[in-house]
Amino acid sequence: MIKTTMTALGLAVVVALSGCTSTTELTKASNSQVSQENVLLQPFSGPFQGVPQFDKMNLADLTPAFEAGIAEHLADVDKVANNPESATFENTIVELERAGKSLDRIFTYYGIWRNNKSSEESRALAKELAPKLSVFSSKVTQNGKLFDRVKAVYQSEEYKTLTPEQQRVTWLTYNSFARNGATLTGEAKARYAEINQQLATLHTKFSSNVLADEEGYVVFLDKSQLSGLPESFIAGAASAAAERGKVGQFAITNSRSSMDPFLTYSTERALREQVWKNYYNRGGNGDQYDNNATIKQILTLRHERVQLLGYENYAQWRLEDRMAKSPANAKALMDKVWPAAIARVKEEVADMQAIADKDGANITIAPWDYRFYSEKVRKEKYDLDSNEIKQYLQLDKLREAMFYVAKRLFNFEFSEVTDGSVPVYHDDVRVWEVKDSLTGKHIGLWYLDPFARKGKRSGAWANTFRSYTTMDGETNVLSTNNSNFVKGPEGKATLISWSDAETYFHEFGHALHFLSADVVYPQSHTGVRDYTEFQSQLLERWLTTDEVINQFLVHHETGEAIPKSLVDKIKKSSTFNQGFSTTEYMASAMMDLLYHTTDPAKIDPAKFEKEQLTKLGMPTELVMRHRSTHFGHIFSGEGYAAAYYGYLWAEVLTSDAAEAFADAPGGFYDKALADKLVEHLFSVRNAMDPAQAYRLFRGRDADVSALMRDRGFPVTK
Hints:
Blueprint: H1 25-37, H2 62-81, H3 89-98, H4 101-115, H5 120-141, H6 144-154, H7 164-178, H8 186-216, E1 219-221, H9 231-243, E2 250-252, H10 256-265, H11 269-280, H12 292-308, H13 314-319, H14 327-358, H15 370-382, H16 386-390, H17 395-410, E3 412-416, E4 430-436, E5 442-451, E6 461-466, E7 477-485, H18 498-515, H19 532-539, H20 546-552, H21 564-572, H22 578-595, H23 605-616, H24 632-635, H25 646-663, H26 671-682, H27 690-698, H28 704-710
Parallel strand pairs: 5-7
Antiparallel strand pairs: 1-2, 3-4, 4-5, 6-7
């Protein structure tokens, strides 16, 4: 999952966190004094055009930093809104792009506390800050004088003479204002701002509740309860227990990277059920961290807000400026895939039940059995053992593989920074300098935070601390990847599953998207949610290329390359379990769309989830990938709300683009096609309409049948 910095969030948050009223010279002087003393406000310092001073960050500085940063931003934007000269691209749009640099830096640090170093103190502070930032945002998006100037540029004769990127930046700016309450007046305008403030508080509450359950539900095992578990997993569980003060025990943490392998290998069915319930009931345990009421409130407020703007429902508003354009188009895509996915699940369950019956298990396959018996089917059908594959999937070697792909396709060379000149916020974090391998030009830095720990939110994500622009001189890129792998024992390799290896490549794809940028303005980094996952999903395909397999998939003990016979089995089983993976994802995507196209007055989240999935024919042997009460993509913020379908939309592009590489003379390392990929699909970011960008790469729109072929589903006309 991608996360972006302030400069890449779009006007509703970036410029929306800029000002709306004048500030006094006294306030400016006071803020200047605060800036000198507060590292969160200071320009990044040190080498590489300056880097975040993570070793000096102090949570006590956060609130005063925001106060000073907001005041500075207010002053910057006040000049734009009250400029007596006629509005032009330079004195309005570009000046808004320049506004509030301090806030960008503050949000870099704030993101670390929220995602990587969370604590009760930081969560309480986030709860206090959320409504204040929302009030600030609403004041700007509803600033009539500011909007009038942006609108004047958008409708001017000058607009016709602007470069394509300048035109798109102007449209993005205007559109963010228009779609976020700038056209409202009177009571409707005040209510819109009030709703935004309430939603900010609820989004923070939702994510805090989920994190509390992730930290609070840990299963500790003794040696008698380890049956079936691989040695590498046991070692990681022992380390996790020791970190929690339980030396001699084994911890199954409430994270996907711990849950997934436990459910795959443990022969203790009762424990599998317990671990499964801990994970999938996050935020829904009927206690003080239960999110059902919070979901209802969020949906109700979102619905009321878009009705103020004249939209029928939230999804209609959300998708208007996405590739899908409408809820109907998003639903139409999912309707093409869903029947084939659930039909495949029935086949997979039948295979699993047959093995369970043959083993005399005397059970009916339940959700906590799916991974366990799926693995048995994999062994029987393909003679393929996931744990055997895992012995060749070393985290460090996979990182080297990603660097290899980056050099072949993007001409990027990575060299680790080991002299201590780049501060980090945890000992696990490592940093690499990125250069152009042909010219030696410095591109930026790549930070890697790979391991799970207390206070770090679950999942995997990418981010930037600074993005590439040339508006005021060329800036380098500070990119970061974050994962939650279970760290191997001291001195031994960290081994991960094939699925985790795909995720590793996926998130690195986001980093390459950041590092490849060739745009002028910060606004060009705003993401289109049903497109931004495409580049990262596409990079997953290089994991299965011969060049990567033959060089980097080596046994962690012997150093021997993975046997060709095992590789053949992996490729032969490429469509195995696609019913499960497609259905668990699509169930979440379809529920997201249903939540945001249904009158919230008719929704009781727990009942609604159950009733709607039953109507869809959801197989009872598995559940949504993200059940409602921990569906952070859509309820801890609005980035993916009514847009979780975007992963599937992007997957259509991915499958279609992968076929282009498969058919190219040089295959997946065809240089001409790689250059075309970088030019049209990576470097432009959002400086061009994504549909147009894809047509420039492929010569046509993407074909959904490529996705069906990829997943081994029947292709229908």
